Known about the structure:
By secondary structure, the protein is an alpha/beta fold. The chain has one domain (2-170): Spore Coat Polysaccharide Biosynthesis Protein SpsA, Chain A, CATH 3.90.550.10. The protein has six helices and nine strands, in the order E-E-E-H-E-E-H-E-H-E-E-H-H-E-H. Helix 2 (67-81) runs antiparallel to helix 4 (125-133). Residues 7-15, 47-48, 59, 65-67, 69-70, 90-92, 116, 162 line the site of guanosine-5'-triphosphate.
Amino acid sequence: MILGAVLAGGMSARFGSDKALAELDGRTLIALAVDALAGWCEHVIVVGRETAPAPTLPDWPRPGMGPLGGLAAALHHALDEGYETVLTCGVDAAYLPDDLLERLSPGPSCLASQPVIGLWPAAAAPELEALLHSDQRHSMLRFAETIGARRVQIASAVPNINTPGDLAAISGPR
Ligand SMILES: Nc1nc2c(ncn2[C@@H]2O[C@H](COP(=O)(O)OP(=O)(O)OP(=O)(O)O)[C@@H](O)[C@H]2O)c(=O)[nH]1
């Protein structure tokens, strides 16, 4: 069973406003992300914000740890609820490719270009916990390396929305 988790905290500093609520083709980015994961996952949660079109969880152990804090909350929830695997994405990845799960399987794995998008074993929760308890702030790639996750290259680049300009560039007829 796969738990879907949209990692949706952070500052949206480059975007200048809450990018989860920005719209693409008339839908919010967070709604697009939740729906995308729902195509592959039994259940989808949103981590790192209080209001969302799916059940929400706070980051673990506290906000401000970056996307890994969201992943840690999702892995703990997966363990508690009996899910073996967690599929993650951010709110800033519009239109995930149809074969994403196929490309990421078998996990652990993440996209080389966007490691927030990955397939993670719930059983890796203790390793992530240890990383988060160490002194430095760590990246998704650092965790991927720690657990020997594959870094998957995909030919069709997934647009990464960091700024309003990034969003404008992919808006309109497709
Ligand atoms: N749960 C959670 N998600 C995060 C956190 N920081 C970033 N994210 C998510 O991870 C994805 C990639 O985030 P970034 O673009 O690197 O960071 P950001 O804070 O959204 O944007 P900037 O402030 O411009 O760097 C986005 O979907 C964010 O919502 C966090 O602390 N907790």
